[in-house]
């Protein structure tokens, strides 16, 4: 029985998760010759404030990127 553990940080819709589970299940069933009912998929979601990479929280990294985008949008001279 195949087990797949997916860990995601950031917003993901129910529809996106549903499609992801369907795609992974279909792929494993085809590749491994297992019945789709045997494929087990779990999704763990992490809040951006509870996940860090490269020495900073993802929420801080995304906040800094959003601030930069806002500054670029406000500067029409570019």
From TrEMBL:
<keyword id="KW-0413">Isomerase</keyword>
<dbReference type="InterPro" id="IPR014347">
    <property type="entry name" value="Tautomerase/MIF_sf"/>
</dbReference>
<dbReference type="Pfam" id="PF01361">
    <property type="entry name" value="Tautomerase"/>
</dbReference>
<protein>
    <submittedName>
        <fullName>4-oxalocrotonate tautomerase</fullName>
        <ecNumber>5.3.2.6</ecNumber>
    </submittedName>
</protein>
<comment type="similarity">
    <text>Belongs to the 4-oxalocrotonate tautomerase family.</text>
</comment>
<feature type="domain" description="4-oxalocrotonate tautomerase-like">
    <location>
        <begin position="2"/>
        <end position="61"/>
    </location>
</feature>
<dbReference type="InterPro" id="IPR004370">
    <property type="entry name" value="4-OT-like_dom"/>
</dbReference>
<dbReference type="GO" id="GO:0016853">
    <property type="term" value="F:isomerase activity"/>
</dbReference>
């Amino acid at each position: 029985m195949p087990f797949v553990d997916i860990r995601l940080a950031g917003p993901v819709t129910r529809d996106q998760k549903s499609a992801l589970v369907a795609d992974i299940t279909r792929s494993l069933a085809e590749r491994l010759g297992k019945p789709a009912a045997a494929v087990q998929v779990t999704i763990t979601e992490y809040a951006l404030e509870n996940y860090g990479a490269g020495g900073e929280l993802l929420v801080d990294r995304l906040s800094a990127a959003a601030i930069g985008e806002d500054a670029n949008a406000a500067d029409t001279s570019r």
